[in-house]
Amino acid sequence: MTKIAVAVTGASGSIYAKVLLEKLQALSSQVDEVSVVWSDNARMVWEHELGNKDYEKIPFKNWEKNNFLAPFASGSSSYSALIICPCSMGTLGRIAGGISNDLVTRAADVMLKERRKLICMVRETPYNLIHLRNMTAVTEAGGIICPATPSFYSNPVTADDIAYTVVQRALQLAGLKPDGYKWGE
């Protein structure tokens, strides 16, 4: 079984986090444990963008951003992946710079040092040169940049369907087998 940590940061794109957490619930036969950590602004952005506090209903273990006792803050844990969704450019910059000032960046550092999956669903447009260099640094360190850039060849209808085109890729990158459109299949 797989243990996955999810970090939700204050970047725009709360719909991606919502869909990711819903899909992880649906994949309970593939996932043994899910833990969630929220940045300072993540819940505020969720409420602004989605118009609700449904994050309070998420059935997974939630960790405070300064609680370094979370199991995924240590390389001795058996967490296999961290998905940062959405990943703000500030968070990405701190990861690229090796700054572990909270549970999100510490967990990212752990995933990189242990050669486990770090998937950063970056959400910004356009990118500036600093963003691109930070993406390069994280990629060179072993992380995966999975931009929150949806695809449309599956003919998505709803906003959730559109978000799922990216979430599905992140779940696949984490080693899971989600349902959904696959090119040519």
From TrEMBL:
Assigned EC number: 2.5.1.129
Binding locations of FMN: 10-12, 39, 88-91, 123
SUPFAM superfamilies: Homo-oligomeric flavin-containing Cys decarboxylases, HFCD
InterPro entries, per the entry: Flavin_trans-like, Flavoprotein, UbiX-like
Task performed by this protein: Flavin prenyltransferase that catalyzes the synthesis of the prenylated FMN cofactor (prenyl-FMN) for 4-hydroxy-3-polyprenylbenzoic acid decarboxylase UbiD. The prenyltransferase is metal-independent and links a dimethylallyl moiety from dimethylallyl monophosphate (DMAP) to the flavin N5 and C6 atoms of FMN.
Keyword Transferase annotated: yes
GO function term, MF aspect, one: flavin prenyltransferase activity
Catalytic activity reported: dimethylallyl phosphate + FMNH2 = prenylated FMNH2 + phosphate
List of residues binding dimethylallyl phosphate: 153, 169
Protein name: Flavin prenyltransferase UbiX
Family, similarity comment: Belongs to the UbiX/PAD1 family.
Keywords from the named record: Flavoprotein, FMN, Lyase, Prenyltransferase, Transferase
Organism listed in the record: Flavipsychrobacter stenotrophus
Limits of the Flavoprotein domain: 3-172
Pfam families on file: Flavoprotein
